[in-house]
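Me: Here is a favour to ask of a fellow structure person. Could you put it straight underneath, so I can go through it closely?

Assistant:
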Amino acid sequence: APGQIFETSSPAEAIADEVGRRIATSGGAALIIDYGAEESIGDTFQAIADHAFADPLEAPGTVDLTAHVAFGPLARAAAPARASALTPQGLFLERLGITARAQALARGLSGAALDSHIAAHRRLTHGEEMGTLVKAMAPTPGDAPAPPALELAP
């Protein structure tokens, strides 16, 4: 819409193009996991320092800079490889069995270690934490089945 901010990354799309061509030619797959959505609408540029938001210009070189990934352009650039459907991290990890693994590990924990373990599992999988903010997508050869924990895009 007029006045709306739209973020794109030509270098990332060029890399996806090369990865897609290599997959189509030689086989294999790529797994892309990051913060983002189908399209990157809005200003997602941010800086993080000590696990908190920071001013990106306050102390250049001392904070981590990030922006959300626009997965749709990457999937399109990876053609002729076929990108899987974009999948939230929580669902991806659940399909890979994270809860069963977490429960097995938790059997040997107690007290603060158990609390920390449970909090880490929640942070990775729950929707109000990283479970829906982070997404996974995998370009594969066009005739390949979906990779584990992912589905083929329509």
Observations:
- The first helix runs from residue 10 to 26.
- Helices lie at 10-26, 71-77, 89-95, 98-106, 111-125.
- The CA atoms of residues 47 and 65 lie 4 Å apart.
